[in-house]
Amino acid sequence: xxxxxxxxxxxxxxxxxxxxxxxxxxxxxxxxxxxxxxxxxxxxxxxxxxxxxxxxxxxxxxxxxxxxxxxxxxxxxxxxxxxxxxxxxxxxxxxxxxxxxxxxxxxxxxxxxxxxxxxxxxxxxxxxxxxxxxxxxxxxxxxxxxxxxxxxxxxxxxxxxxxxxxxxxxxxxxxxx
Length: 177
What we know:
Layout: H1 8-18, E1 27-30, E2 35-39, E3 44-50, H2 54-69, E4 84-86, E5 89-95, H3 128-135
Antiparallel strand pairs: 1-2, 2-3, 3-5, 4-5
């Protein structure tokens, strides 16, 4: 674990200075693993994360910009070079929007039909099951998305108890709710 004598708020101020952003009115919003500050002079939110989160934050900024380019309603990162590393912190900057009660809620359907990002942001390892769960329709049978290439889904296999006997649940075969 990296330690520093610099406080997250000081890291936010130094990152703002690096990008020539005004720090007037910098106000803490949340102090946790990632500290969050309102920066009203720039109509922004400043997120101060641990330095080991740099790759993750870079990927988040890249992906969010790509989603915005395809008219997906997302919080946009400020149009500045980011993230910024300050001592043991990674600092990112995001537009601050008023939060109306009737704001639209993004849904997975918003992603249908848009081309993948180019270049594609580096991804953490996703299991085939995760990808299939994200793209299959809701009425797809339970656990069928856990099928791997060349192997049937778990729902296609009979359930067996510890002795290897097929379990009888008393329920009809098919999707269960």
